[in-house]
Q: What sequence folds into this?
C-alpha cells in the first residue's frame, strides 16, 4: 500500500509539496463547511449528489490551519485512492482470481492507469470512476459565480464566505477554465 501511495504521489508530487484545493475542494466543500459546518453541508446536495466523503474530509481539514487544509484533503484522497490496492491484494479478493500474481497485475493496472492524472490526489474525484476532465485548481469559483449574496442553483441553502475563497484560492488560480473554441462549454467537465 505504501508503494502504491508512492506511485500516486510520484504522478502528482505537487499534491504534497505545493498542496492546493482542486476544483470543488475549496470553492464549494471547504467554503460551505467553513461557513455552515459539517452537518449542514452534509445534508445539502451539490450538483444533485450528497457528497459525504469530500464534506467529511473537508470537515477534518477545517480543524487545521487554512494553509494546511489542502494537504489534509490531498492525503485523504491518496488514502482513498490506494485503498482498492489493499483490497485486491487481500485474501478476500481470491474470488476475483486465486492467483496472487493476477491480483498484483490488476492492482498495478489500477494504480498505473494512463491519462487519469486529474483524479490523482484530490478529494473531489476520490470516488470518481473515470477522468472528469482536466479542471485547474480553484477554477470552479469563477464558473460557479460564487460571491457575496450569490448562491449556486444546486445548493440553495448555502452561501460560501468569499473571504474563505480568497484565502484558499489565490486570484491567479480562480480564473475561469478554458473553453472549447466557439462552444462556450467549459473543458473542466461541466461542473
A:
Amino acid at each position: 500500500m505504501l508503494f502504491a501511495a508512492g506511485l500516486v504521489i510520484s504522478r502528482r508530487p505537487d499534491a504534497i509539496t505545493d498542496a492546493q484545493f482542486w476544483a470543488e475542494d475549496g470553492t464549494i466543500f471547504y467554503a460551505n463547511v467553513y461557513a455552515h459546518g459539517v452537518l449542514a453541508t452534509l445534508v445539502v446536495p451539490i450538483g444533485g449528489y450528497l457528497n459525504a466523503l469530500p464534506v467529511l474530509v473537508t470537515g477534518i481539514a477545517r480543524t487545521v490551519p487554512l494553509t494546511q487544509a489542502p494537504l489534509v484533503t490531498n492525503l485523504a484522497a491518496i488514502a482513498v485512492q490506494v485503498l482498492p490496492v489493499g483490497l485486491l491484494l487481500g485474501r478476500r479478493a481470491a474470488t476475483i482470481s486465486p492467483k496472487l500474481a493476477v491480483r498484483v497485475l490488476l492492482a498495478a493496472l489500477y494504480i498505473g492507469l494512463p491519462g487519469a492524472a486529474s483524479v490523482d490526489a484530490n478529494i473531489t474525484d476520490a470516488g470518481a470512476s473515470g477522468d472528469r476532465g482536466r479542471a485547474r485548481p480553484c477554477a470552479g469559483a469563477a464558473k460557479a459565480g460564487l460571491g457575496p449574496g450569490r448562491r449556486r442553483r444546486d445548493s440553495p441553502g448555502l452561501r460560501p464566505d468569499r473571504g474563505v475563497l480568497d484565502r484558499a484560492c489565490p486570484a491567479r488560480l480562480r480564473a475561469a477554465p478554458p473553453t472549447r473554441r466557439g462552444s462556450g462549454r467549459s473543458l473542466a467537465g461541466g461542473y
